[in-house]
Amino acid sequence: MRKESILITGAGGQIGTVLTKALQEKHGAENVLATDLREIDLPKTRTDTLNVLDKEKMTKLVVENRVTQIYHLAAILSAKGEEKPRFTWNINMEGLFNVLDVAKDHDVSKVFHPSSIAAFGPDTPRENTPQVTPATPTTVYGISKMAGEFWGNYYFLRYGLDIRSLRYPGIIGHRSLPGGGTTDYAVHIYHSALKGESFEVFLKESTALPMIYMDDAIRATLELMDAPKEKIKVRDAYNLAGMTFTPAEIVAAIKAEIPEFKATYKVNPLRQSIAESWPMSIDDSKATEDWGWKPTYDLKGMTKDMIKNLRKKYSFKKSA
Ligand code: AKB
């Protein structure tokens, strides 16, 4: 059987950095090409620069590397996207169209592109949000994710492209930092706690959002991509859940490990309104039913693991 050849876009981002390593472990570093708009510095990794709007270069990389799978992570997220709506729409949609067309025209056998809880909106039931439900996203990022889900399904139905997607909740991990999202506070808060600093939360303390630990998010991505084709019944995007918590709850979980940690609240109106338009918890039973998805980390387990790993990182920095 031919070895997989993997192309990742947005590989320098929060998920990309970690997914690249996981894909290298699975397929061999020589079979993974990590690309991003800017040069990326990932050890022992084949890298190249790629602007996802540059279809010619994308085509060249896919053809020259005989790419069999694309993981298309490049996108502008919710809060950042609101600064330049038309620019965000262009990057998120044209980037996706380039990936879909290059994949269709050059025998790429599977494509992964993430959707998000941002694809939902104020008319969506906020608790235990069902797989199929009204979705009226109100951010340009959310609109692009919902449109991207429909287009993925279209390329599957019309051209038979094996396209797979997950509606990621906020992702929290210790190996990389997020940028431009509404859920970012839940990563930065751990770094402040470990540096012995207090942290100012930009959401109200009672704002519940769905979140997932990076290890679970990566495992979900690999399991979805490994599942036999006939098991994948959803071609727009699967709901995916890990845990749900409010800022007050994550602060309490950190304090249980680091009692001197202090947090204050200063609401950022844009991020607060985005968070209030999103679900609080997600029903991911369809993913469980179709390909066996099961999260392993809750808030307590994640907090212990984050603190253990960040402690190593910061004590190493101090002694270096
Ligand atoms: C964001 O906050 O924009 C992202 C997401 C939930 O997709 N983390």
Can you give a write-up of this model?
With 320 residues, this protein is an alpha/beta fold. The chain has a 6-stranded parallel beta sheet, with helices on both faces. A 3-stranded parallel beta sheet has the order 6-8-12. Helix 1 links the parallel strand 1 and strand 2. It is globular, with a radius of gyration of 19 Å. The structure holds 2-amino-3-ketobutyric acid.
Summarize it.
The chain is an alpha/beta fold and about 325 residues long.
Task: Describe the secondary structure blueprint for this structure.
Layout: E1 6-9, H1 14-27, E2 32-36, E3 46-49, H2 55-64, E4 69-72, H3 78-81, H4 85-105, E5 110-112, E6 115-116, H5 140-159, E7 163-164, E8 166-168, E9 170-172, H6 185-195, E10 199-201, E11 209-213, H7 214-226, E12 238-239, E13 243-245, H8 247-257, E14 263-265, H9 269-277, H10 285-291, H11 299-319
Parallel strand pairs: 1-2, 1-4, 2-3, 4-5, 5-7, 6-8, 8-12, 9-11, 10-14
Antiparallel strand pairs: 11-13
Helix pairs in contact: 2-4, 4-5, 6-8, 6-11, 8-11
The protein binds 2-amino-3-ketobutyric acid.
Main features:
320 residues; alpha/beta; Rossmann fold; 2 domains; six-stranded parallel sheet; three-stranded parallel sheet; 14 strands; 44% helix; 14% strand; globular; binds 2-amino-3-ketobutyric acid
Q: How far do the termini sit from each other?
A: 46 Å
Query: Which strand order do you get reading across the main beta sheet?
Result: 3-2-1-4-5-7
Kindly report the average pLDDT value.
Answer: 97
In CATH, what is the class of the largest domain?
Alpha Beta
Bound heterogens, unique: 2-amino-3-ketobutyric acid
Shape: globular
Major sheet: 6 strands, parallel
Q: SSE order in H/E notation? A: EHEEHEHHEEHEEEHEEHEEHEHHH
As a percent range, the share of strand residues is 5-15%
